[in-house]
Amino acid sequence: MSGTVPASARASRRGRPLQIPLPAFLRSRQTRLVMIVVGLVLAYALPIIRPPFLTTTDSDFGGVMVGAASYALVAVGLNIVIGYAGLLDLGYVGFYATGAYTTGVLTSQHAHWPFFLALPVAIAVTMVSGVLLGGPAIRVRGDYLAIVTLGFGEIISIAARNSSWLGAAAGIKDIPPPPSIGPNPIIQADAGLFQIPHLTWNGLVPSVDNLHKTPFLTFGVIDAIPYYWLILTVIVLVLVADMLIKDSRVGRAWEATREDEDAAELMGVPTFRYKLLAFALGAAIGGLAGSMLAAGQGGFISPDSFLLPLSMLFVASVLIGGAGNRWGALLGGVLVAYLPERFRGLSDWRLLIFGLSLMLIVTFRPQGLVPPRRTKRALRVQAEIEELEGEGVDV
Amino acid sequence: MDLSTLLNTPQLLTVSDLYHSFAAYTITGLALGAIYALVALGYTMVYGVLQLINFAHSEVFMYGTFAMAWVVTYFHGTASSGQSLGSTLGLLGVCLVAAMITSALVALLVERVAYRPLIRRGSPKLVILISAIGASFSLAEVMGLRDRIAGWFGLDGKLSNYVSQARNVYSSPITINPHKVFELGGYGVTDVDLTVIFAALLMMVALDVFVNRSRLGRGIRAVAQDPEAAALMGVNSTRVIRTTFLIGGIMAGVAATLYMIRIGSTRNDAGFIIGIKAFTAAVMGGIGNLRGALVGGLFLGVMENWGSAVFGTQWKDVFTFVLLVVILLIRPTGILGESLGKARA
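ok -> structure tokens follow
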């Protein structure tokens, strides 16, 4: 749709005005662009700013942000599978592990490839595993996919633990981090091209904290923030790709398949192929996230990093945020990773809380915290149809 | 040879192992499979009626195992001792009843909380599936956090025999020592093997008769065939669904007791693997098909034991999973075909 058409005209062309009209200045393209840029800058600067209430006191804030960003990346990938294509993938951790282990094997365990060479291979391997796993299950029946992926998620850590080629229970260590920009000496004090001091807050008054600086841009063992920036950049790229795909023929095919598979098939949509594509793309993003984890701070992975409850948390992220809405998934991932770190007392209860919230959400707010726009529209249309049908019965 | 020693043998087993102790692997496999089959019934019944995978069924089973272990703890304290099957029959009877009641109550709770509100609203399948997954994790976590929850009421000290170290393995204080009854192909078939297999078969036959002969069973088959037509004919579908969950729960309770007789210990996540395997068994036999669950369960138990003989026990679960994918590829409707509705109406 061309960008020069005012939003109001666009809405009326659909035959129905938007129910909650945004203020005019928010609707213009320029302001939205500015807001996106400001939001991005804030997102990048967040671990430097260390805002008072948000900053975690019990654990390294940079590390927490890395966790939140990883979950967000995973949630965006899983959202393609669950939200767009409507396939329930309960073993996403399996793809996460596949990506991580491929990276570990190629960069440390059996070869010494550089990270950016191993990354595309890891993505490709994960994608292929997604096709091999999803093919038989999707072809048969959608809900078998849930159990097949669940099994996959469970056995992947068993397989890693029992295979000495994959480092067995000890896992893979010394996975090299991504290449640094600028010098990267052992003493981090003068690493990188330049160093960015953090802020420190006294109440609500910020001041520059020259004792804590983040080097730009070296991936060391002390400071997690460069890893956060890397993952954030990957998220931005994935989001752009996600928008392009969602608004293309492929995205529409997913939507049609999800809403009514038979009708979509009748309209000539090869539903099986599109579902498999969604599954494989989701798997690839899971592999990407796993690869980032492997090359992350410390460079260590083990079977214990990929236990099945993690899968459950991933699914919860997507559904709590709002399946089908990339921003919802993003928010869900951040919340699921961040809240237990901020409120440390909750961490034991985390799975119970997410289990209960899954039940509550599907019962009381099935569309999630940030529902996709089209769902809102579809719900409204459905309500109208029901109203009309109701009248018809009366006559 | 006892199952647990068999399955915990560290060295890599080989085909010749399978050849030499073929009877041992087969009989223990059948006993294991009988337990899978009983749990599989819960999946297959619910799937037959609702076309939904009851994800929380593994937890229904897990609560049964704890009920059994707790009853034994209640009567015998925590000092562990080994006893023969015959001398503990009375206690096992109490355990069986307790496990059946517990599992049935949990199953009814799942139906009431995770299914009924959504079914009534006509929610899409995916939504109900997710609700069941939420229920499954909540139930497993409640069991894993039971020490903390008891602590809220100040009962953790008083109940420490039952709730301490909630996330660890909980062993039944009494272990059943199997006794050889007769020899078959070099393997001493034990009373435990026979009890497990025959108890499972008995329950299966009873359920088959119930579904095929009783009035309520006819209702179940009717709803499975065509829910709308059944409703028009006056079948109370809510009641049928509740009965389905109830039966699944009772069967899971029996399976839990038999499991505890064999294995002797459980954990808050013990249901998970059994659940996946039982579901695999249900799919193998033809989901929604009662006799299929039996065939699938026994088949899976035997295959799993043979597989672990050939590939090594640590690959057992991986083997089962690969088997599931292969079955889905070559015969997705299972060995006996699907449908509870068409089950010899």
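Residues 6-13 of chain B have pLDDT under 50 and may be disordered.
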